[in-house]
């Protein structure tokens, strides 16, 4: 049946689409109806999909699609690493000497010494990475003033040694590692 309107077909469609804009009440009612229809359609379509997914028949096969583009893949599993420790008698004498020299430089902080001078005294025995960390230490906060005993290994690994060095205030727990430049201190803690 043709649209018979004095203004034509466009006017009829315009009147249909502009009806909700005639008042705020019409607009709200139209919005509620549209949202309701969308929710009902979602439940109707979603209910079927979930029912189909929930019950799988034994003959159902799942197709696996290959990725359309080359993306990152998972790495193969790596066996857990276990540290290799050696007997304390296997400690390299050079590692103990570096720890003793580093501890002597660590306690050498006369009043008024700047951080730069103090770190320069530690630098020959320290890894380059750890020198940057030590530049944030204030030598005035170091409680010890002298080393009171020899360096003693507490744990020995093929490329690192944990060493305790006693001072007049604390015992330094020093980690010495083997680098390309020889044995160097890579960290310490006050025990």
Automatic annotation (TrEMBL):
Region of interest (Disordered), ranges: 54-78
Parts of the chain that traverse the membrane: 25-45
Keywords assigned: Membrane, Transmembrane, Transmembrane helix
Keyword Transmembrane helix among UniProt keywords: yes
Domain of life: Bacteria
Protein name, per record: Uncharacterized protein
Organism: Pseudonocardia oroxyli
Taxonomic path: Bacteria, Bacillati, Actinomycetota, Actinomycetes, Pseudonocardiales
């Amino acid at each position: 049946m043709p649209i018979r309107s004095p203004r034509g077909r466009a006017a009829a469609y315009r009147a249909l689409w502009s009806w909700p804009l005639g008042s705020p009440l019409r607009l709200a009612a139209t919005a509620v109806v549209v949202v309701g229809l969308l929710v009902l359609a979602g439940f109707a379509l979603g209910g079927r999909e979930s029912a189909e997914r929930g019950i799988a028949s034994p003959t159902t096969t799942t197709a696996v699609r290959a990725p359309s583009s080359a993306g990152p893949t998972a790495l193969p599993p790596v066996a857990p690493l276990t540290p290799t420790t050696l007997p304390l008698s296997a400690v390299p004498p050079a590692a103990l000497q570096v720890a003793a020299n580093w501890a002597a430089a660590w306690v050498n902080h006369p009043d008024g010494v700047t951080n730069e001078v103090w770190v320069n005294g530690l630098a020959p025995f320290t890894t380059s990475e750890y020198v940057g960390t030590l530049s944030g230490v204030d030598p005035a906060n170091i409680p010890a003033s002298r080393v009171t005993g020899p360096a003693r290994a507490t744990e020995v690994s093929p490329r690192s040694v944990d060493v305790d060095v006693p001072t007049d205030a604390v015992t330094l727990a020093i980690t010495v590692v083997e680098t390309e430049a020889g044995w160097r201190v890579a960290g310490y803690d006050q025990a």
